[in-house]
Amino acid sequence: MNTPTCPKWCEFNHAAWDDEPDGHDGPSFGDVSVGVAFGDPLSVYTEGQPSRTPDQAREFACDLYRAAAWVEDHRDD
Ligand SMILES: [Zn+2]
């Protein structure tokens, strides 16, 4: 569920008791996620993966690019 303090892009499934959460998750782009902790700017974070094939690396780079663009688009929401 969303809380009254959620930004409109929040996709995190907050618990009912968590009416003032300190972070919100946006969409994921493959292994790349975006979100924010209050007081910090929107940021891009990734799931750890020790090694990637060239194809996986290329796809990962593309996901990173899309995540970065999303953050720039939603910074002022
Ligand atoms: Zn939220």
What are the key terms here?
3-stranded antiparallel sheet; 3 strands; single chain; binds zinc ion; 1 helix; alpha+beta; 77 residues
Tell me the number of helical segments per DSSP (H or I, 4 or more residues long).
Answer: 1
Helix-and-strand structural type: alpha+beta
Distance between the termini: 19 Å
Would you identify the regions where 5 or more consecutive residues have pLDDT less than 50? none
| Beta-strand proportion | 15-25%
Please trace the helix and strand order, writing H or E for each element.
EEEH
Radius of gyration: 14 Å
Could you please describe the fold and organization of this structure?
- This protein is of the alpha+beta class and 77 residues long.
- The chain has a domain at 29-74.
- Helix content is 27%, strand content 22%.
- The chain contains 1 helix and 3 strands.
- The longest helix has 21 residues, at 54-74.
- The model has no long low-confidence stretch (mean pLDDT 85).
- The site of zinc ion has 8 residues, from loops.
Topology readout:
Layout: E1 23-29, E2 32-37, E3 43-46, H1 54-74
Antiparallel strand pairs: 1-2, 2-3
Q: Could you give a quick summary of the protein structure above?
A:
By secondary structure, this protein is of the alpha+beta class. The chain has one helix and three strands.
